[in-house]
Write a sequence for this structure.
């Protein structure tokens, strides 16, 4: 009986909570979302919500400056990071409308000092992240720069001049690239005869009434009502310093109220034209016909069945997100000054206001598992199975798989929630059991003699994994130099641990995979491959991150 009363009491509490939620206004529900940041001792967030070209709710939570206890308001100025890119794209399209340039012009027409990569790179390639150029921030970090360093346009342009190769053929792929938008801002400046900050002030901010917005091209400039940047270390907050003096890819300074004026202009035009904004929201197709979400300075997709145009921003401790739902004339934004802030909360705002427009969740149709004839399987001894166990590293997308034995069979381990049994059909080929497709796993060696695993799905090209194996680390020891970055790294072995050493970045631990292959938990050195000459001597290495491919470091010969 006591259990029954407790159950009824719990049920009543749940009903009351549900009724309270219904009774709460939308604004109160939004406040509840950001309650954790509405503290006098914390950095926080400014938000704004737009419906039918009106700001229906705008508010600040937390502190803009922890040292002086200054609260965040909708008029607090934030560094907008990559949200800047849509303003840069708009500026280029404005000049195109005036007949002063074309998106299909070659970049070298306006920036002749750019290296000749032997491939035509257009302004459209820059704007759609399909130029193949290496990303400026990754290059600077590999060269030893830190986010607290003063970084100017001149530094980036100098770095670009020394680049020797592209990541890929222009127009053939998408790879997010800040360098492209720095170049676009420079092109706007050269074509207009004004600095980019002056051009955007005259053509965007002033006519829209964005009185507290600017492109920040001087890192020493005083900005009133500015939110300072923080990161969280356990229960404490620390300054996260940012000294950018480069524009286009970043460095828009704006407020929630000002950014709302920009968002409303997509529907209720004060500047630009319908054609310009249609271009900004048109996504790029790759040469192979594959569609992308990439538009000009924005991304276009769907959220719960509703079309959404969006972009986020992230520099130092600043975290921002602007989302627009054009079919419902709705927009929401969050501007935060702490790195631990979850920008995805902007979609929780949308949930409060737009849930009646969302598509109902479709029931997933369960795919039938691919059935292999039991007669095709053979038996292998435990010793033979053991030879295939170990950790494997995928060489193109850079992720791990583990092979181990469980209950007498090999297991293909992805993570704690996903693993698949493998059964042999030959001494070195196995089939995945329980998968919806015909998947073969083949163990062999590559041309260099490294043990590997090939995963073949149906008739597609196999995915190659190298097996982690002991290697002779001493052959790689020495100093390596990049002429493109004008910097050196030293490969050394410390306490049996291979490391890279840099005079500014310190020690970067490496993980050996196989002969000539290393990886690292540091994303800047995700893939490191040593290069050998015809005599099989190590002469350099290539380092790759997600936005820099095969940057070469040559081995420095020791002085006699």
């Amino acid at each position: 009986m006591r259990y029954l009363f407790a159950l009824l009491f719990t049920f009543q509490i749940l009903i009351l909570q549900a009724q309270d939620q219904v009774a709460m206004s939308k604004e109160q529900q939004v406040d509840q979302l950001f309650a954790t940041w509405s503290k006098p001792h914390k950095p926080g967030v400014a938000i704004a919500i737009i419906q039918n070209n009106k700001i229906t709710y705008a508010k600040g939570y937390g502190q803009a400056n922890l040292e002086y206890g200054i609260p965040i308001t909708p008029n607090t100025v934030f560094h907008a990071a990559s949200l800047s890119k849509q303003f840069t794209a708009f500026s280029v399209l404005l000049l195109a409308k005036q007949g002063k340039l074309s998106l299909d012009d070659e970049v070298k027409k306006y920036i002749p000092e750019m290296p000749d990569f032997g491939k035509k790179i257009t302004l459209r390639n820059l704007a759609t992240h399909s130029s193949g150029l290496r990303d400026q921030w990754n290059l600077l970090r590999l060269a030893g720069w830190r986010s607290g360093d003063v970084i100017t346009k001149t530094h980036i342009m100098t770095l670009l001049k020394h680049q020797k190769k592209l990541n890929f053929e222009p127009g053939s792929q998408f790879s997010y690239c800040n360098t492209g938008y720095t170049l676009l801002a420079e092109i706007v400046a050269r074509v207009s005869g004004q600095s980019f900050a002056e051009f955007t002030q005259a053509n965007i901010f002033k006519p829209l009434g964005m009185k507290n917005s600017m492109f920040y091209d001087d890192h020493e400039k005083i900005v009133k009502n500015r939110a300072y940047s923080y990161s969280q270390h356990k229960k404490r907050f620390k300054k996260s310093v940012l000294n950018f003096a480069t524009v286009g890819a970043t460095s828009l300074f704006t407020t929630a109220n000002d950014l709302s004026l920009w968002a409303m202009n997509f529907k209720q035009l004060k500047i630009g034209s319908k054609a310009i904004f249609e271009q900004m929201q048109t996504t790029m197709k790759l040469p192979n016909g594959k569609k992308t979400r990439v538009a000009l300075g924005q991304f276009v997709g769907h959220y719960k069945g509703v079309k959404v145009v969006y972009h986020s921003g992230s520099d130092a401790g600043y975290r921002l997100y602007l989302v627009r739902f054009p079919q419902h004339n709705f927009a929401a934004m969050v501007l935060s000054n702490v790195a631990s802030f979850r920008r995805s909360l902007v979609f929780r705002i949308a949930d409060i206001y737009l849930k009646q427009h969302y598509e109902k969740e479709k029931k997933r149709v369960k795919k039938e598992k691919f059935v292999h004839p039991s007669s095709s399987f053979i038996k292998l001894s435990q010793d033979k199975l053991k030879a295939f166990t170990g950790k494997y590293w995928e060489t193109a997308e850079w992720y791990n798989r583990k092979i181990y034995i469980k209950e007498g069979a090999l297991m293909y381990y992805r993570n704690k929630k996903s693993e698949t049994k493998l059964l042999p059909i030959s001494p070195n080929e196995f089939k995945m059991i329980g998968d919806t497709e015909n998947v073969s796993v083949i163990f062999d060696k590559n041309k260099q003699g490294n043990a590997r695993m090939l995963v073949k799905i149906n008739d597609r090209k196999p995915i190659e994994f190298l097996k982690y194996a002991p290697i002779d680390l001493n052959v790689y020891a020495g100093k390596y130099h990049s002429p493109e970055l004008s910097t050196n790294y030293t490969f050394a072995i410390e306490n049996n641990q291979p490391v890279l050493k840099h005079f500014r970045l310190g020690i970067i631990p490496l993980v050996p995979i196989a002969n000539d292959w290393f990886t690292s938990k540091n994303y800047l050195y995700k893939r490191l491959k040593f290069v050998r000459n015809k005599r099989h001597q190590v002469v350099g290495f290539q380092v790759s991150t997600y936005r820099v491919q095969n940057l070469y470091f040559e081995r420095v010969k020791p002085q006699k």
